[in-house]
TrEMBL record:
It comes from Rhizobium straminoryzae. This is Amidohydrolase. InterPro entries: Amidohydro-rel, Metal-dep_hydrolase_composite, Metal_Hydrolase, MTA/SAH_deaminase. The lineage of its organism: Bacteria, Pseudomonadati, Pseudomonadota, Alphaproteobacteria, Hyphomicrobiales. The keyword Hydrolase applies. It comes from the Bacteria. CDD domains: ATZ_TRZ_like. PANTHER family: AMIDOHYDROLASE-RELATED DOMAIN-CONTAINING PROTEIN, AMINOHYDROLASE SSNA-RELATED. Residues 64-436 form the Amidohydrolase-related domain. Keywords: Hydrolase. Pfam families: Amidohydro_1. SUPFAM superfamilies: Composite domain of metallo-dependent hydrolases, Metallo-dependent hydrolases. GO terms for molecular function: hydrolase activity, acting on carbon-nitrogen (but not peptide) bonds. Belongs to the metallo-dependent hydrolases superfamily. ATZ/TRZ family.
Amino acid sequence: MVTQPTRYLLRGADAVIVDDGTGQTVLRHVDLLTEGPAILAIGPNLSATEEATGAEVIDASGWFVYPGLVNTHHHFFQTFVRNRADLDWTKLSVIEWLDRIYPVFSRLNEDCFYHSSLTAMAELIKHGCTTAFDHQYCFPHHAGKRLIDRQFEAADLLGMRFHAGRGGNTLPKSEGSTIPDEMLETTDEFIADCARVIDTYHDAAPFSMRQVVVAPCQPVNCYRETFVESVALARDRGVMMHTHVGEGESPVIAARHGMRTVDYCAELGFAGPDAFYAHGWELSHAELARMAADGTGLSHCPEPVYLVGAEVTDIPAMAALNLRIGLGCDGAASNDNSNLMHCIHSGYMLQCLVAATRSHPVPEPAAFLAYATTGGASLLGRADIGRLAPGLAADLFAIDTRRMDYVGTRHNPLSLLAKVGVGMTTDMTMINGRIVWRKGEFPGLDEAKLAAEAEAALATVQF
């Protein structure tokens, strides 16, 4: 890790998307000053102020500066199964796909989990993501228990703000789950390791770079007691909870427990302001209303909709209920990239596609940027990230709009990512006041070497 200045002055940005807590707005032709992990000031002519003394000046001419994106659902380990024709959703039923994909996952070793995490986080950073939550529920017996530890190691190398979702599966396939025996844990094993990683890594202080979420994989693949014990541990330690809900499993849960998934989770206490679910495309209006009333959030993953093809998540209904919404990439088994910025564009366009079938209007394009920033911060329980304002974390990315790609678009930075989309990497990404991506490079790191090491790790697994 290279040593960097403690202060940066981004001078003369064409636009900075700011938020004082009342919503995102655009400031034109201003400077942005950082000190340590935080934003010190945003305004015109900051270079003349005493606070800017000693800062490294970066020419931000032509730049649009955005708050760093917050990814609220991913499966980094799936990065090693991208672009595989034999796992194509369009050629398999969901059951056939699950029966084929989980044995593949069960073969991954510890190094695979490290390098796949590094690969996913690198791509996220290149495209403006500064905080990533990963739902790591794959624990093959031969890979051991230190997989979350290796993920934190990867995050440290790249400088990523990382929230680790310690997932797990406890229900055997013989009792109705889709999980091979070599990936199963007991509830006691799962809870014990959740406690270990919380005690080892979780940091609740402002500007924390490491947090842990208790995240049993999903109700259909876990015993009831797993969720009960997860709630008890999370509430005792003051951490967030996460799981998959509303992606086609509700009829199964209803057959087992006499109620659909949202009601089942709420009955177990796995709901509230300290809980958020992933997906939610099959949920009824009443279920969404219950989530909103409980304060439970939802991570919407738009790109898997293309492959699963079941239903476009009803974001307008969720927005009308003031349900807390974030965006997620999801894993490479159902989305072959780790580009949250692209999800902003996909999310908006998918809602436009089905607008005529909805009872509520599609939210404004700028709302989808908010889902990926302030919305994501809310899901993760963070008040110090997700927006650009003095005193908050210096998490941001910049796009130089002096390119043909942006001619005719520069009048509205707020809707640019959702309506137009950005098809290239950022010109700079900063996390916690440290530049982690700039001019096509990870400062102090050899990307080609990292990629070769990841390919070598992948080659050790027989698929």
